[in-house]
Amino acid sequence: MENLMLAFGLTLLAGLATGIGSVLAFFTSTTNTRFLSVALGFSAGVMIYVSMIEIFFKAQESLVGALGEVPGKWLTVAGFFGGMLLIAFIDKLIPKAGNPHEVKKVEDMSKPKSDVQDSHLLKMGTFTALAIAIHNFPEGIATFTAALNDPSLGIAIAAAIAIHNIPEGIAVSVPVYFATGDKKKAFKLSFLSGLSEPVGAILAYLVLMPFLNDMMFGILFAGVAGIMVFISLDELLPASRRYGEAHLSIYGVVAGMAVMALSLLLFI
What we know:
Elements: H1 2-15, H2 17-27, H3 33-67, H4 69-93, H5 115-149, H6 151-180, H7 183-194, H8 196-208, H9 214-243, H10 246-267
Helix pairs in contact: 1-5, 1-6, 1-8, 2-6, 2-7, 3-4, 3-6, 3-9, 3-10, 4-9, 5-6, 5-7, 5-8, 5-9, 6-7, 9-10
């Protein structure tokens, strides 16, 4: 029960980090692009390292134990790429107008606006919130299942996902506020977009928990590893490079991997 509450709490905190992005958009005058570049690179480093070094092999261990060496290894690889295909398919469903990968900056809120753009910007902000909600759903399942199995691992994944949710909160708030002038509406939409992560956790608990044996756990963890690697390569690294210098992004990745490696050696 303690693990269950911790897993849900971590997922909730990771999801609500979109609200932090929204608050930053309202209470700072400029975007600290260098910090965001390093932070997003760091998040990618954590997620790639933990997926490839820890989660993938935990999945393989479970599946080999349940099915035998050859079928277990094959199913682990299939689950890994299946997770990548799932998140890529979700990406394809999102309209281009709401692409959450589009970099937004806090200073964009002070630009002069025209009435002609208002409806388009509001639509873009709403689509972005919807896109982030769809994206966050499998992330919620990933954080929840990882924390349920291993709380230390769950904390690392939740922290990495929370970091990458902050600029997503800015991406929702900037166009909505620019279109409406309403800070409350912009914050509310940004905040709600992050709630799909705990919803994903609840769904994982209600649907998957009754069937969670070694085989189901292995397939789920392999899929989670694939989802996190895809998100890192498709979202975090490109956004990190757009926010700052290329070298800052790589330094962040290396730092994230080093911190994750150290925590795995010391705590797991």
